[in-house]
Write a structure and sequence with these properties.
five-stranded parallel sheet, Rossmann fold, DHBP synthase, binds adenosine monophosphate, alpha/beta, 30% helix, binds magnesium ion
Length: 360
């Protein structure tokens, strides 16, 4: 299949391209498009064949449900059974934005879209190109991240081209995304809403709006044991799969920053002595402290959003550099930092080395 790439400038949106992409979606085709979190791979959420094509293009397990994207809150009532009061308050506070809510689905949403579940995940993205595209498609759009299943999510069109060129109809390129980490997911079907995946909208922000919420244990899991006895099924099914992973083995080091630097340098030396190519993820504050083959700064500790924004791009860049192992610092786990570490730990397949005491 020939995949067309169309550049759409968010400052001056070309409606001809939007309409072309909208028609593809409306007639069952697939279009990758930017959102404020990561690039999504869109298809008609009401069309089971389109949903199946999404799973196929990504190589995604069919029990890992898709998030449905809408262009205004009014569209929600057509696809969900009811809107709990807490959900209404969160929509008011955070939509359009990086918050996905889980509702009881109406029959119009096929089980192919929800991975066989009776619930559906919905969000309204805060990105003009995405909103115009959904409007032009005239149907709700199912859109998981536009990467091959298991790889880091795409934060620019080049990442989507890498993974999906030849497998989908169109890629809309509007440059780099703003946030760089997927949406927060909250299940509002239970009495006390439950965070299933952390994101830019933090627990603290949500609790200010609706009071107490709880968290699925995968949110802050540090080890495979933390997510429990064998057979534990996270409420957000995708969270059980290997995710965001670069080709080379990634290990995350936690503890006092001086000890982390020393430990990373020591392992780097041992590996390089074996002729292994070593990649190191540092920060602006520590980049000059390391010895390795490829040393990159993920951002500054003074601004967590800079770290979130470059995380997936850096993981992908190590793939193209063919490094053998990747060693990384870890980050604060307060608020947004919790989402960053959740993704890093999954990308590392739970390989965390604790050095010294937790003082960073
Ligand atoms: P992605 O868009 O690739 O970030 O993946 C969407 C994620 O949303 C899935 O991996 C699930 O974890 C979650 N999700 C989607 N629909 C549901 C649902 N009905 N119930 C719980 N989690 C869901
Ligand atoms: Mg994904």
């Amino acid at each position: 299949m020939n995949t067309v790439v169309k550049k759409i400038n968010i400052e001056n949106i070309c409606m001809d391209y939007i309409n072309e992409a909208g028609n593809i979606l409306n007639s069952g085709g697939l279009v990758a498009f930017p959102t404020e979190t990561v690039y999504g791979l869109g298809g008609n959420a009401l069309d089971k064949t389109a949903a199946k094509r999404i799973y196929q293009a990504k190589g995604r397990p069919s029990d890992n449900p898709l998030i449905v994207h809408i262009s205004s809150p009014e569209e929600l009532k057509d696809i969900v059974e009811y809107i709990p009061e807490n959900a209404g308050k969160m929509m008011e506070a955070f939509w359009p934005g990086p918050l996905t809510l889980i509702f009881k689905k109406k029959d119009i949403i096929p089980y192919e879209t929800t991975g066989g579940l009776d619930t559906v995940a919905v969000r309204m993205p805060n990105h003009e190109v995405a909103l115009e595209l959904i409007k032009a498609a005239k149907v709700p759009i199912a859109a998981p991240s536009a990467n091959t299943s298991g790889r880091p999510s795409p934060t620019k069109a080049e990442h989507v081209i890498e993974d999906l060129s030849g497998k989908i109809d169109m890629i809309v390129d509007s440059g780099s995304v703003g946030i760089g980490i997927e949406s927060t997911i909250v299940d509002v079907t239970s009495e006390i809403p439950m965070i299933l995946r952390p994101g830019y909208i933090t627990r603290g922000m949500i609790e200010k709006v609706i009071g107490k919420v709880c968290e699925d244990k995968v949110v802050s899991a540090k080890t495979l044991e933390d997510i429990g006895e064998k057979g534990y099924r996270p409420k957000a099914p995708g969270m059980k799969y290997k995710h965001y992973a670069p080709k080379a083995e990634l290990t995350v080091f936690e503890g006092d920053i001086e000890k982390v630097i020393a430990a990373i340098n020591e392992i780097s030396k041992t590996e390089r002595d074996k002729n292994h190519k070593v990649g190191i993820i540092a920060t602006d504050e520590t980049i000059n402290r390391y010895e390795g083959d490829i040393i990159v700064s993920i951002g500054t500790r003074a601004d967590e959003s800079s770290i979130a924004k470059s995380l997936y791009d850096i993981l992908r860049s190590f793939d193209s550099e063919d490094v053998d192992i990747i060693l990384s610092e870890s980050f604060y786990e307060d608020e947004f930092g919790c989402a960053i570490m959740n993704r890093m730990i999954k990308a590392a397949g739970y390989r965390i080395v604790k050095v010294g005491k937790d003082e960073i």
